[in-house]
Request: fold
Amino acid sequence: MSVVLKPTVKHTASVIFLHGLGDTGHGWSSVFAEFKRPHIKYIFPTAPIRPVTLNGGFEMNAWFDILGLRPDATQDEDGIQKSSQLLLNLVDEEMKNGIPSDRIFIGGFSQGGATALYTAMTSTHRFAGIIALSTWLPLHHRFPAHLKQCENKFSTPIIQCHGDIDPMVPLQWSDMTVKLLKTIGFTDVNFKTYRGMSHSSSPEELDDVREFINKIAPN
Reply:
């Protein structure tokens, strides 16, 4: 199930935002509620419950399994692909409701952002924008070979945000992701770092996210 913040005027754009490990859609819905726009529908799905290897097999809401925190750790490719498909199903629902993909933002925090970045790379849709908070591009070694093309894909706006003292997802992972995106050919990648921010968010970061959305979909 998803938490949905419905538009209060004519619906012209959508934001689909995925939470981090162990959270639910309710966590980020309350954050976005502070700066939501009346013409935008905001959708916050909750990940299925599954065992997480990094946490001793404890079951929690997770978009995919985490097997380790090193860049060379084995990755849960099957789980990443399944969650990407869940996200694409939500995109398809919005498109059936008359919202084209270039008016749909996808994004997320940590694991959720990783799922969104992977989906943006492997989907044939051109999205309105990608919101990547404290996150990384998973299965990075598969790109650019597994990149799926579509018209104007490389001009997709991407905002990548990260705290400089994140102990869970190192800032270096974001930096490597941004460099890879630019190497692949993406031309509108905005990388922002926040002094003193851990694996969390901040008012400054949320202001940047709000501005990012409002600039692309002002009405």
Remarks:
- The chain has five helices and nine strands.
- The longest strand covers residues 13-18.
- The two ends are 27 Å apart (CA to CA).
- The longest helix spans residues 77-96.
